[in-house]
Amino acid sequence: MSWYAKMYFSGDKEIFQYDSMGTQGAPSVQQEPPFLESLLSFQELDIAEQTPLLKDIAACWGNYIADDDKDALVSAMMKLGELGARHIYFQLLYVRFYERQARLAFSEDRGSAEDEQMIDELRRLPELLPVYQKQVQRFFDLVLDVDTAGREPQVQASRNYYYDIPNDPDLFRFHPIPLSFEPVEYQKCSPVLYSGSIADMIDYSLRSCVERGITVRRCKNCGRYFPQTGRVSAEYCERPVPSGQTRCREIGALKQWTIRQSEDPVFKAYRKEYKRRFAWIKAGRITDKQFYDWSERAREQKKKCDRDIISAEEFYAWLKTSEKKET
Asked: Is residue 297 predicted with pLDDT exceeding 80?
């Protein structure tokens, strides 16, 4: 096999490298999403939306194999490229089929058992992918979800499998995968998966979570799963978001800050006085300059209170004193 679809983990990232010609060290495609992002985004895929494209690819490739239809080949490769852009898992299909069509240009074995197998796998994907999603979700429920399964994936996995057979027929079934071990970065070696199928990549992600004791949780803000690679008490994710949007963990931090401030009597007193004086501007009782001069002094006094330089009572007294001076 000259093409490859490599996957390995490095710190808080997962590395994907694809090359249809098998050129090591210079992959045609390389992506470095956050750890477990490929599996989590796969779980969120609407397979019904991918099915028409998968069926078109199978039909075009079938026409090429049967009739040496070059237009059908071009169409199949373009559609495979489009599919690969939708999810990193589908890049495996592109490099595999690209390598096969390159070999067919110099051989006369078109229509071989290999071609029949490739077409059959394509045709089965619309049925297999939803099954994988269902099995992974069940694995989350019983093994990895910290809120439903607890914090010990190793223990939960051992309870739910008899050797390599799951106790629950809807649970993901592991199988031997093509793992290598090789240098991946400067002075660093790692296990590397040479994927032969989408199931291989799913398998490798799940077993890696169990081996590393990594759980998942649904984000309190967006509701999506995220891996707990840091604090197990984390409730907000750092999953990728569209450009210009705020990540959930930042939103969560702001919410927590707001809650803490709303429960802080010193902050309440400061905000109450701040709003009252702001209303005085509209009423004509003070000028803009007087308001901003006061607010600057008030912030400094609050900082002193927060740092225990002055007491809360002294801060409240200062607010009353400043009010008398303004009025």
From this structure: yes
